[in-house]
Amino acid sequence: MSRILITGVTGFLGAHVLHQALEAGYTINVTTRPAKVDSLQKHLGDKVQVFGVDDVVTGDYSSALKGVSAVIHCAGPLIGKSGTDAILTGSIDGVLNIIKQAVNAEVYKIVFTSTLLTANFDPKIVFSDHIYTDKDWFPATKEETKDKSHDAWWFYYAAKTIAEQEAFAFANSHPEADITSINPSFFYGPFAPQYQIGKGDVGALSSNGMFYQNVLKVSSGKLPPVQSVGPINVDVRDVAKAHVLALKSPHTSQVGQKRLFIGDRNQFFSWKDAVEHLKSARPAISDRLPDTSEAQHTKIANVDTSRAAEILGLTTYTPWEKTVEDTAAALLAVEKDWSS
User: Fold this and answer.
1) Which of 11, 116, 214, 282 has its CB 3.0 to 4.6 Å from that of 271, i.e. a possible disulfide?
2) Is a pLDDT exceeding 80 seen at residue 253?
3) Could you give the 3-state DSSP secondary structure of residue 186?
4) What's the family (predicted)?
5) Is the confidence at residue 81, as pLDDT, over 70?
């Protein structure tokens, strides 16, 4: 099996991508900050080779790219952990930096993590009969990012959107490049075996933190009538699987045709669904779960995943009940570890 480069392996999703790529038999290079190379190498062992890259925006990937046949770029700034400028540069310039260096090194197969948020998660659209397709975009331009009056979420949507558009614009002028974006919505699930969470590091919970706050640790003891975030969701293991499958996807000259939405409408769950399922599946924790009597099921948009099915062969997804159970179990284990 060929050697590949994966960035962002210390993240929630990146750790799963690394785990699945290793299980698929790939030989793997990974990157991290230079100061963390030795500790990460010791943690991951001899299954991978760790390279230091000081910054995703301007860093030199030349050593990490030697001998590889493909790149999976999962690294990127997270909302809540990065300022506005860091979100913009880390998302846009970070993606372009590694794409350009890979192509210059004659590594043409490139997969990068984007988000379904680039298709515009305006609540008026999310809570409707709309069907998201790869033709949907969040309405933002680089010029508009100069206006700092927008909130952090707007900048995150805008940054990820512009990053995708510029990546495909680069592919349009470099037909030898085979670029795929993987666009999941909010993802939940267990943590990968090698994922590290420091004691009390709430940020390391990543998107599972939303699950924790809305299912396992609801301060009011009661779910609100309407779910405000995360109703279109997917299992993190399915998102990682899409990245690895993309390594073998056929090249297409149609720019933008490998913008792949990941998810399954039949597997979406609300916080109400999650709580009520756990009350049945995990009765031992029922007394800590919130009251769902006022929570309502609302209309939720659908997602056209036909391109992912066609290009990746990804047609089946983890049942939402398993996602809920495994996420809860993982978070309860972390909670127990933190309290010890």
Assistant:
1) 214
2) no
3) strand
4) Belongs to the NAD(P)-dependent epimerase/dehydratase family. Dihydroflavonol-4-reductase subfamily.
5) no
